[in-house]
Amino acid sequence: MISEEEVVRQSKIRRVLIITLLLNILVAAIKFSVGHMFDFTSLVSSGIESFFDGSSNVLGLITMYYAAQPANNSHNYGHHKYETLGSLIIAFLLLFSSFQIFKSVWSHWQSSITPQFSWIPVVAITVSMAMSLYVSWYEGKVAKETHSSFLEADADHTFGDFIMSGGVLISILTSYFGWRWPDLMIGAGISVYLAYLAVKIIKENLPELMDASPGISESILSEVELMPEILDVHKFRARGNQRVVYIDFHILLEKNIPLHMAHDISHELEEKIKHMLKDRVQICDITIHVEPFAKNHHD
User: Considering the domain 217-292 in this protein, what is its CATH number?
Assistant: First the structure.
């Protein structure tokens, strides 16, 4: 059964994704229609990018539903990696849109079409920039509250859209002087930036999918060493993300210590580690294997 805390978390994320989906569709429609109307490659390219923003929101709604499902017989550790998988799919969508934009820029470079200056594209891109900035801020805020890697990736993506829209605004303003090259250069820049964002998201999320260590071993081992009852610790392992972490390790205690005391020590240590990580992760699953101390100990 899904916990009440997880239900609240999913509700927050779902609300964000629905709101940003509607805003992204509106932004994409404005950019795409006005860009075609006045022959601005950079504006059309930015519209394509905003369309993929909306696609990623739909993807987010799907992946978050599956990620929220509790552990079962076929998925003993839960389904949280669906969220990571969704982040990686966003990255590949970015690569695809980067390629499509580059093709459009290349096609316009070979043609003789010149953008037509008008205040309509200026107003359109300014409105879309305001929307993108709000969406990025909103997603980033809720991403921190819910420890959502998907929302964090999408917030970075949307902020990139805001930055690129600034370049589009420059290309529109320079068209007043009959300059064609800024529009094409901004379009190419959007293509490169989307590829950069895709690589960044892949580098941040692929390690978790491959069970890489989240880099918390040193701080935890330092906490373990503060407990005088623990004579040694070894076989430390950790995996997970900013929401869920799984940790297991072995500790050595005096061989004559009563079983109930050994249990109390391991339980105290588990609570200390959870308290230490409470601001970093939502769920911390810890397994501690207790062994009797011996000089030439071997597992």
Answer: 3.30.70.1350
